[in-house]
Amino acid sequence: MAEPKLIVFDLDYTLWPFWVDTHVDPPFHMTSDGKVYDSHNHHVKYYKDVPEILNSLHNSGVKLAIASRTCAVTEASDLTRLFKWDQYFDYRQIYPGSKITHFKKLHVMSGIAYEEMLFFDDEHRNIADVSSLGVACQLVPQGINKESFQTGLQLYRRLKDKREASSR
To answer: Is 122 a catalytic residue?
Structure first.
């Protein structure tokens, strides 16, 4: 079955259930039990299926990237490090601005065609923008989970099959 060469994730409300620039307060720290807390000792959590999804993709050899429009660049990077996700991501585009810019840079950095990418995001505007490049985009309004991830893979495969059929 056709698999994407690069899978890209947004962060806020896609991998974790908050906006890093407004809903949590740095600095962040990890306690001896492996949990992450903000400066007010509020437990900072991610969506429960995220570690399993990232680990599985990493083990399968798929390239992974982050594309986040946040102004809280340092804070987002701190959380990915504390959650021990940095090992999974080959490319990172974390800064304010258009997702189009993020994806153009990901394309140049990776050498991977837009049509070989799959993107997950919780915002319609980002899905609309990035899909205009030819990227398969899956809206995840409740954040990523195993089911929405599988739905995204199925979308990618359908689009790839459709492109191949039209090029014959």
So the answer is: no
Residue with token string 């990618």: 156
The per-residue pLDDT for range 46-62, each reduced to its tens digit, is 999 999 999 999 999 99
C-beta atoms surrounding 142 within 10 Å: 13
CB 13 within 8 A of CB 122: yes
> Is 12 designated active site?
yes
pLDDT in tens, 115-131: 999 999 999 999 999 99
Give the span between the Cα atoms of 163 and 168, in whole angstroms: 9
How many Cβ atoms from other residues are within 10 Å of residue 147's Cβ?
Answer: 11
From 10, 38, 121, 129, the catalytic residue: 10
Asked if 159 and 152 count as a contact pair (C-beta separation under 8 A), the reply is no
SS3 of 88, please?
coil
Catalytic option among 12, 121, 122, 129: 12
CA 126 – CA 77 distance, rounded (Å): 21
